């Protein structure tokens, strides 16, 4: 409630109290991270880690993020750093940690799908993207990526259903249409 109203100090206080009572309460940890990111003077390790990530300094970002309080968002950010470094196992481990703290964390499901796709495990990727879509049916990137892996799995009709969703949402996006056409032609 406080967070929705933008009362960051009250929201922070409530999340910290919830974590004092139950340190493993994942929604409070996730909420605290979000509030600290919004507040001026919040968790400087998270802010600095995000700056380093944005600058492409992934190894330094990992070191800085590692000092911050564990949360789903933190593990997702660490996973993204390892992903950008091509360290798929480490990336997957952090996305799994994010999901252990908050099983409804859509971005972690989506990012785990990206890792599985990079590793060539298209079925696991399709499953991870499906989980992201179950939690957020409008997640356009998950529709696109699930379509890609379903096509590689030899399931073109299922892939087309995801792309039809994207076309309906973006009827004038010629670039999207060209990508879909290219994949469809490459995998008849």
Structural overview:
The chain is an all-alpha fold and 188 residues long. The chain has a domain at 104-188: Tetratricopeptide repeat domain (Serine Threonine Protein Phosphatase 5, Tetratricopeptide repeat). It has twelve helices and no strands. The termini are far apart. The model has no long low-confidence stretch (mean pLDDT 84).
Keywords, separated by commas or semicolons:
188 residues; mainly alpha; Serine Threonine Protein Phosphatase 5, Tetratricopeptide repeat
Rg for CA atoms: 19 Å
In the CATH classification, which architecture of the domain at 104-188 applies? Alpha Horseshoe
Say which CATH homologous superfamily of the domain at 104-188 is assigned: Tetratricopeptide repeat domain
Helix content: over 70%
Strand content: under 5%
**Average pLDDT figure:** 84
Predict the CATH topology of the domain at 104-188: Serine Threonine Protein Phosphatase 5, Tetratricopeptide repeat
CATH class category label of the domain at 104-188: Mainly Alpha
Q: Sketch the major β-sheet.
A: none
Write the layout of secondary structure elements.
Layout: H1 2-5, H2 8-21, H3 26-38, H4 44-54, H5 58-65, H6 72-84, H7 88-101, H8 106-118, H9 122-135, H10 140-152, H11 156-169, H12 174-186
Helix pairs in contact: 2-3, 4-5, 5-6, 6-7, 6-8, 7-8, 8-9, 8-10, 9-10, 10-11, 11-12
In short:
This protein is mostly helical.
């Amino acid at each position: 409630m406080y967070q929705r109203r933008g009362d960051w100090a009250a929201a922070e206080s409530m999340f910290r109290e919830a974590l004092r009572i139950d340190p493993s309460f994942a929604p409070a940890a996730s909420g605290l991270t979000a509030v600290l990111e919004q507040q001026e003077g919040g968790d400087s390790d998270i802010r600095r880690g995000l700056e380093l990530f944005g600058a492409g300094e992934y190894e330094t970002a990992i070191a800085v993020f590692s000092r911050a309080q564990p949360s789903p968002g933190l593990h997702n950010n660490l996973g993204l750093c390892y992903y950008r470094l091509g360290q798929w196992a480490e990336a997957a481990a952090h996305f799994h940690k994010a999901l252990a703290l908050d099983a409804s964390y859509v971005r972690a499901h989506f990012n785990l799908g990206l890792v599985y796709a990079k590793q060539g495990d298209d079925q696991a990727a399709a499953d991870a993207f499906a989980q992201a879509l179950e939690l957020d049916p409008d997640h356009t990137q998950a529709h696109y990526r699930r379509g890609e892996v379903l096509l590689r799995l030899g399931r073109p009709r299922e892939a087309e259903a995801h792309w039809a969703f994207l076309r309906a949402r973006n009827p004038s996006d010629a670039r999207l249409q060209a990508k879909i056409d290219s994949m469809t032609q490459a995998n008849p």
